[in-house]
UniProtKB/TrEMBL annotation:
Matches recorded under Pfam families: MFS_1 (PF07690)
Keywords in alphabetical order: Membrane, Transmembrane, Transmembrane helix
GO annotation, cellular component aspect: membrane
Subcellular location field: Membrane
SUPFAM superfamilies per the UniProt record, alphabetical: MFS general substrate transporter
Entry-linked PANTHER family: MAJOR FACILITATOR SUPERFAMILY (MFS) PROFILE DOMAIN-CONTAINING PROTEIN (PTHR42910:SF1), TRANSPORTER SCO4007-RELATED (PTHR42910)
Membrane topology: Multi-pass membrane protein
Molecular function terms, GO-annotated: transmembrane transporter activity
Protein name as annotated: Major facilitator superfamily (MFS) profile domain-containing protein
Spans through the membrane: 85-106, 118-137, 198-220, 232-252
Superkingdom assignment: Eukaryota
Length: 310
């Protein structure tokens, strides 16, 4: 449990770096004197950088360790299969919290000080995370030896050919992540314009609506994902997500309740689907979970990239 909490904390403030810009896009547009369409390239380029990192570095942690996405396969290695989904949900909650806490923290800092200060705070947090992981992360033997970096990258493609489960999960991750980032990127422009005209702080507070996965995720994982086949959990999660998106789409332009309900249900449905998918794909190649996770996350980050650029 302490290691799960450490991983969740590290994931929170590492993932947050991709999302600090979201609630202050309107402020950045005014500061740089550009249009909303132009300033939306900031989160798009951030996601593109994240995709490059996942493709380049994540597979190598069959040999070395790095990054929050590496913590998830490591949890899959360390936890018994019967409790894997529960443990993954705790660490995943940290990643979700990073997506949402970044918006809240950025909105507060920009409202009461200067927007650049959020990035100075981020720098300090990265040094703290580095120190904590250096001191408390356990030694973990390499799961594969005598394999080159090129072969590691090439083997990821091979898993797509031999594992339909990975292909299915990756496609779901792609489309669901596109809807997620598209919603949170455009939400800033919706709330800062008519009929709402909310300030940066209020926009940042909307991230609190997306905390449902953090509170309900471990319970859902323990009593649903761990107990039943992943496909059933995925169907239930997708149904919840579709309900949230439908409510937000048809009511968001005239009622603030629409975006709040959509944020709560969409975030919960997305994260529970991802946990169920990870539970399924980690059984594909137990000694290559980092590579399997990289294959899955390539689809997720491509979806996030498409969502922020739309």
């Amino acid at each position: 449990m302490p290691l799960n909490i450490l991983f969740a904390f590290s994931g929170t403030f590492t993932v947050a770096n991709l999302y600090y810009s979201h609630p202050i896009l309107d402020v950045l547009a005014q500061f740089f004197g550009v249009t909303h369409e132009r300033v939306s390239l900031i989160p798009t380029c951030s996601q593109a950088g994240g995709l490059g990192e996942k493709k380049t570095f994540c597979p190598t942690v069959d040999l070395y360790h790095c990054g929050p996405q590496i913590m998830l396969p490591l949890v899959g290695d360390l936890v018994p299969p019967a409790r894997r989904a529960t443990a993954l949900s705790i660490v995943s909650s940290g990643l979700v919290l990073g997506l949402l806490f970044a918006r809240l923290l950025s909105g507060i800092v920009a409202e009461y000080s200067y927007w650049r200060n959020i990035y100075w705070l981020s720098l300090a947090l990265q040094f703290l995370i580095f120190a904590l992981l250096w001191m408390f992360m356990p030694d973990y033997p390499r799961t594969n030896i005598n394999i080159s970096y090129v072969k590691i990258l090439y083997s990821i493609i091979g898993y797509y050919w031999t594992s339909p489960v990975l292909v299915q999960a990756t496609l779901m991750g792609f489309f669901l992540s596109a809807t997620f980032t598209s919603f949170w990127t455009t939400l800033t422009f919706l709330l800062s314009g008519d009929p709402y005209n909310y300030p940066t702080l209020t926009i940042g507070l909307f991230s609190l609506a997306g905390l449902t996965p953090m509170f309900l995720g471990p319970l859902y994982s323990r009593y649903m994902i761990d107990k039943f086949v992943p496909q059933l959990s995925i169907l239930v999660s997708l149904s919840i997500l579709i309900i949230g998106v439908s409510i937000g789409t048809y009511t968001g332009t005239y009622s603030v309740a629409g975006p709040i309900i959509q944020a709560a249900l969409q975030d919960f449905g997305l994260q529970m689907t991802q946990i169920a998918n990870r539970t399924a794909i980690y059984s594909v190649a137990p000694k290559a979970r980092n590579r399997i996770n990289t294959g899955y996350m390539i689809g997720v980050f491509c979806g996030q990239l498409m969502g922020t650029s739309c």
